[in-house]
Amino acid sequence: MTEPSPSPSEGAAAATARTLAAVVADLPGGGEARPGQEAMARAVATALSERRHLVVQAGTGTGKSLAYLVPAALSGRRVVVATATKALQDQLAQNDLPQVAAVLGSRFSFAVLKGRNNYLCRQRALEVSDGGIQPQLSTAEPDDRAVQDDPDADGDPSSEDPTRLVDQVRALLAWAERSPTGDRGDLPFEPSARAWGMVSVAPRECPGAFRCPSGGTCFAEAARANAAAADVVVVNTHLYGAHLASGGAVLPEHEVVVFDEAHELEAVMTSSLGVELAPGRLRGLGVMARSLVAGEDAPVIDALIEIAERLGAALAERVGTRVLGSEGAEDATLADVLGLAAARLDGLSTALGRRQRDAAGDDDGAWARLWSAAGHLANDLARLAARTDDEVAWVDGTRRAPLLRLSPIDVGPALAATLWGGVTAVLTSATIPPRAAERLGLDGSPLDELDVGSPFDYRSHALLYVARHLPDRRTPEAEPALLDELEALIEAGGGRTLALFTSRRTTELAAATLGPRLTHRVLVQGQLPKARLLAIFAEDETSCLFATMSFWQGVDIPGRSLSLVVLDRLPFPRPGDPLTDAKRERAGDAAFRLVDLPRAATLLAQGAGRLIRSNEDRGVVAVLDPRLATASYRHVLLAGLPPMRRTTDRRQVVDFLRRALGPATPAQ
User: Fold this and answer.
1) pTM for this one?
2) How far apart are CA 596 and CA 666, in angstroms?
3) Which residue, among 192, 185, 172, has the nearest Cα to 129 in the 3D structure?
């Protein structure tokens, strides 16, 4: 009897398994077969063949990158891979994709595409070079996001040493002459935000290749062309969000998208599908226009800069609060300022139109950027004015650098309308949040879900300790007891501790209190750049690192230096966050179950996931919050953690660490 022919999806899965085995065998030193990796690869191949979405939880050590790259490369369809961190982008581009290409040969190509402001702008460089650097200093404004990321930045061009700034710009111009990519990541030095801002453009300033005099030699356009010709394109998840927000104008056409680190997807899309308005955008537009508009139209620019200062003052008073959602005096004042900003922007546009007719042919690149920036700003002001009940406006940032945000309360409907019907999507992470498909609007689409586990032996290699005996954190004796517990654990572990806290205040209190008491070096977030802190922590096996929420994810330190992860409390979102509060109000009586609990479960799993990063790792995750042992909802939180043995007895922790680790070796 003739055997039935395999279905297309079965054939794709089998071909993927064979190719994956070849890629793994070709790894340096020879790779090892991982059942979870093969199961995931087969599932991805089937999903792509049948055009069904797939959500895969793949624990640490699975090798999920190759598990989706191999079927993507064999699919015959253009694939975009979106990652939430630069570290993973670099891993894909420098390691995983070349390994796949080495096996598939000329049948396969890949590219990396970044946001436009990551590439040097040929036109800006030409203008700076032709006109001299000094005249450009007064127009040099760092990008809004750079100001937000740098607490010391204040947007004042005089705040940076002019000599150093000029030297950096000259170095950038010289580098541009020999760089094949213009990619900031290829620079041999790190320029200041202001220096880079003089030779680059933000996406909303760029008029596009056809309207720019240097469009034919544009680094960013060359990168886009390279991406358009590739089989797999690696991007940042924020760039994918910008692609959706633009109506599909940023990335090349594609049929498949893979979201790695998918636990970040909801937050990224909430930001990307909204509006961000910093006062610096208004001020920067005025500064850009001043060199092109003069004479009788100069007051128009002064008026725009003046309203930028008024907007900054209005926002500074409301940092951390929701705005534009009531009839109160403060919201009315802010709405009036935004309305005036729109009116004054209209006045500037009228003046620009009049002046550009008189100056036809002059400064074409600057005019095009100015029109683009003005158009984007006008659109954002109109979006703020037309906000709906499904959006929340709030003020983020600091008093020195406030940022007005408009965010969708629920991104699911927007993603269902703009994304899931047009592509086949694979979402993967070591931690898939509870109800992720529903929250992302995938629940109405053809969808499969899979958990391939982890190859690590958590039951033998790791112990989960919950300090059930500690007092309620709301009592006066709670903090001293917590610090005593942390000290005892660190001494039992011989250092080797990553202590993660849910607040900066508790982090600093623990460091100040325990630093003099411990026999081990204590590193504290903020002392040094993050990468340097992690390097020192990894090198010195006796050290401890105390850090806040930004270290709960993305820290990858295999080996004995990280053998104890301590979490000071369950990471529930705090009351008062404007966006989270809006989500709670939308969920009503189910807010804790639908909003707070899923976020806490995801962050708890991410924090605990810092411990076991290789087959050789051994250690303890200690949670100093008795609710994980006593609360009715503890089972939801525990279900998201790796299958570690559990205890509430510190003596078992001490014994486990002694047997697993032995004495520590200080750094030389």
Assistant:
1) 0.90
2) 41
3) 172
